Model the fold of this input.
Amino acid sequence: MRILLAEDDELNQKLGIRLLESSGHHVTLASDGEEACGRFLASPHAFDLILMDLQMPRIGGLEAARRVRRIEREQGGRVPILALTADPDPQRLQSCLVAGMDGVVGKPLDVAAIESAVERITRGEQVQPVATANSVLGWEAALELVLGDEALLRDMANLFLERADDRLADIADAHMREDAEALARAAHKLKGSAGNFGAQDVMDAAERIERAAEAGEPAAVAALLPALRAALEQACAELRARVEAPSP
Done:
């Protein structure tokens, strides 16, 4: 398939391109919703599928999907759009369907699940949200996720380690500025990246902060930040040990 991948996270970009191309698909990358809309507008019939992250800067996935559907009403055609999210729940599915998407798939990216979803869409069936089984991934399961490519997994881990302090700073800065939208987006981004390695404590802490930000509860966010810092420090220490260990 010719796939337009809209994803702003560098780690998820690397993983998505590697897995999709390894499965024989051609990938065009867009780093946010605005770029995705621009690429689609330039070539509205060039794609067989759009994979759309929901939390992106400038234009999020829902608004980008609405714009794609408006372009199609003017120029014809209808390409399937699947949302990519670390929270593939029924409520999120409904929001995606209202925006014009065809379904939701979970992160980390699962090529088999995506291909199955496209088959269901072509049969006119609704794609129910299914989370990728990543709650207790661990290194070995993460290695399976990247098709046994340990060099890729180590590169991803190094990238996560390089960005960890910045991700935490983004969350703290958004909290200090009382920017609930940016805070929720930053926490969601960290949660999705941590999911690639099964860093469950980080994912849980980031999700609690994301929910508190969405609920407009800054006091709760302040109380949750120490747990996120501790979980991230522990996850980074374990990842660093894995990366520095000799290859088998």
